[in-house]
Write a structure and sequence with these properties.
This protein is an alpha+beta fold. Helices cover 32% and strands 22% of the residues. It has 10 helices and 19 strands. α7 packs across α8 and α9 packs antiparallel against α10. The longest helix is centred in the middle third of the chain and has 21 residues. It is elongated, with a radius of gyration of 23 Å.
Length: 351
Amino acid sequence: MNRLQRLRDAMAGADVGALLVTDPANIRWLSGFHGSAGTVYLPLDDEPVLVTDGRYVERAADEAPGWTVIEDRTWGWLPERHDPSRDLAVEADHLTWAAVRTLQDLDSGFGLQPTTGLVATLRQTKDDAEIALLRRACTITTDAFHDALGWLLPGLTESQVARRLGDVMVDMGAEGHAFAPIVASGPNGSRPHHDTGDRVLADGDLVTMDFGALVEGYHADMTRTVALGSPAAALVELHELVHAAQQAGVEVARAGTATSDVDRACREVITRAGHGAHFTHGTGHGVGLLIHETPFLASSSPGTLQGRMTVTVEPGVYVPGLGGVRIEDVVLVGDTDAERLTTAPRQLITL
């Protein structure tokens, strides 16, 4: 079933007669268009319309073949298209208050119907084309890690490592990096989202590298922690603990598992070892056209994993004054197990 039909089925179930899509990721998923200015108008029983401005008309025609493309910087096109006897559904979690006021001020006769997650929920389960792009992004990310094992050494700064990781991924075919790479060395490893800086890598450090390739809009996200020289025994033990916790999470990440249960599987391993207070974030998140998208894997997250979801499993332990470890993979959820799309070694590698 194509994406438009899947959305129309969801609209019918929510009693939505027409939907205004303004979230850029949702627009790209539906139409293929990914310019910075765009709106999709989708009636339940008529052709979809893509609205953009003069900068993107040709591009929209190329990226959304077969769609009706309207060039307009205003909402003036909308009253001519929409049946005034029916409310217009909008993406309440994306449309700005200013845009809502403008729509309300139109001399149109229709009301606005707020919706949440109609498209984003569909995007959670990936089709074959999406999985292929995610595989490519994850393969490039894995290959970049293997490349780094040949040049990562004491004397480099965190920033130098981050820049080189990004350059290598582009050289390998990525359109860019999925997010600014995080490189945390030595004591900086106790900060889960450390601001990569000018600290010089030293012998005995653990170095955590969180990075990913971007391929045709799809994001990879992988974290590995490696050792330089001979790290302290306490750091080696932390790595062994996180390795075991991540394995426990991946083992339960199958269709039908509550998202909170994946978090619980990781957290119980870490808590039993006395480091529960040092695991300070959720276990994972969906990944696709956004680096962080639903579903989220945390103790308070509702929902259940479904086949063809792609999520991260990324437990970590962070001890101020000592350092930290995180191990993360993108996994493809199946009916009986999860397939790791990022496949770099997870055991502690010493350089």
